[in-house]
Design brief:
The protein is an alpha+beta fold. Among the domains are: about 70 residues, Orthogonal Bundle (Helix Hairpins); about 80 residues, Urease metallochaperone UreE, N-terminal domain (HSP40/DNAj peptide-binding domain); about 90 residues, HSP40/DNAj peptide-binding domain, CATH 2.60.260. About 20% of the residues lie in helices and about 30% in strands. The strands form six sheets. The protein has a four-stranded mixed β-sheet with strand order 10-11-15-14. A hairpin with a 2-residue loop joins β4 and β5. α2 runs antiparallel to α3. The relative contact order is 0.11. About 10% of the residues have low confidence. GO terms for molecular function: ATP binding; heat shock protein binding; unfolded protein binding; zinc ion binding.
Amino acid sequence: MAKDYYNVLGVDKKASPDDIKKAFRKLAHKYHPDKGSTDEQKFKEITEAYSVLSDDKKRREYDTYGQAFPGGARGGQGAQGFGGFDFSQFQQGFGQEGFDFGDIFGDVFGGRTQARTPRGRDISIDLEVSFKDAVFGTTRTVLLGKVSTCAQCRGSGAKAGTELDTCTTCNGSGRVHETRNSILGQFTSVRACNACDGSGKIPKEKCPACKGHGVLRKEEEIKITVPAGIDNGEMIRLPQQGEAIKTGVAGDLYVKIHVKPHATFRRDGANLVMDLPVKLTDSLLGTTVSVETLEGKTLEVKIPVMKRVEELLRVTGKGIPGDGGRGDLIIRLEVALPHKLSGKARKSVEELRTEGL
């Protein structure tokens, strides 16, 4: 029974070359024998499908004639593999047909790859700041327990005053080459030498503080600059302030900001918003009130005559600092109605009623 190569890779017949390549990468990573898969048959199927659909000429012929297209994977007595698919053609040189699995397996299975520089672990912490500090910015110092570079040996792992010998495992290169065999040929990968942690050197005498590891866990003071205008839930990244690693670079420290609510102000984008209770008479006749800003200064705010209930007043340049300048202070007027009217006040209100107010 003819195979549906598109179905094997799980792609649509209109799939682009990039879609086909991505689908093959995913399946090859899952079913490759070097990855511990026991389904070698499935790996052969997806390899056969990719060899056809990744070649424009073969794909056009396959779309026209099906699996029996000229030059396709036809059955035969001399064919190797399953379904007549000859895998030996791939091991004999893909370049003749312009077909190369090298870029596919290079990053998936380690073929033709270079060892990456070791990098320490990223860590994250939570930091609570006041509403005012979040608006105007602040600097905080935290005591953090983490893996850091050993101060005595400065990360070398050797006792102070002693020398380092060349690692005999990697001959001083810090890298070890590993070659693995697969049905597609040999794949060579490069990894950091475990004996010297990729440094190429072995200490004659180990550092007594870190036992030769070059790093150790300790408490360290970290200075954190909280930028002005930061919002609740935002993250601050401190490069190479995470955990250290021997012969590599330290990871990053991520600080998640938690802003405590304010009794008077709240945030609305770049603006500060506050509620201001106003007496009924002041809203009808107008007045000037004193408002304390977030900075602690006194601001005189004029309430116009006959301002409507829940009217908004805007004071420019008194909001959240940002790249485009400061936002505004929005004052939301709340007209406070009296709980009880005196006889005189009641009479005055009744007179207003007669005037249609």
